[in-house]
Amino acid sequence: MIIIIDTNVLISALIKDSLTRKIIVFSGLEFCYPEISLHELRKHKNLVLKKSGLKESEYENILNKLLEYITLMPTEKINEHLEEAKEIMHRIDPDDIVFIAAALCYPDSIVWSDDKHFEKQDKVKVLKTKDFIKFA
Questions:
Q1: What are the residue ranges of helices labelled H in 27-113?
Q2: How much is the average pLDDT of 96-108?
Q3: Domain ranges of the chain
Q4: What is the largest CA-CA distance in the chain?
């Protein structure tokens, strides 16, 4: 089982040493994050620094540590499923098309997101952070 992490989950893991961070680091599960979405993570860097109280170097260290447990998915691989993902998500939330496309790359994958709009589609299984408590 491959778990596609959405950006809000990764941001949560960056902000504080939470259950989310522990799941990523200690669960032994296989996590992936779309490489193309790193720009979105960078876009929210100042917000993470403000909310977490981290220094920039601490932020970089935590991000690098988290990425040791997360495989970055190449854009080329995701692009193979982009059209199908657009059909699924374009009316729901176009910003999350990439996560559905990433999940479609693997037959038994799951999207990890606490965003309710993922529940409006039925092509990809979605779990919330609370569903991962047994893995922590």
A1: 38-43, 45-52, 56-67, 75-79, 82-89, 97-104
A2: 94
A3: 2-129
A4: 41
Q: Which CATH class is domain 2-129?
A: alpha beta
Q: For residue 101, what pLDDT band results from cuts at 50, 70 and 90? A: very high
Six-digit token string for 36? 């193309």
**What are the phi and psi torsion angles at 17 (to 5°)?**
-75, 80
Neighbour tally for 63: CB within 10 Å:
19
The residue type at 4: I
More confident residue, 60 or 136: 60
Check if the beta carbon of residue 102 is closer than 8 Å to that of residue 4.
yes
Could you tell me whether strands 70-73 and 30-34 are parallel, antiparallel, or unpaired per DSSP bridges? parallel
Q: What is the mean pLDDT of the chain?
A: 93
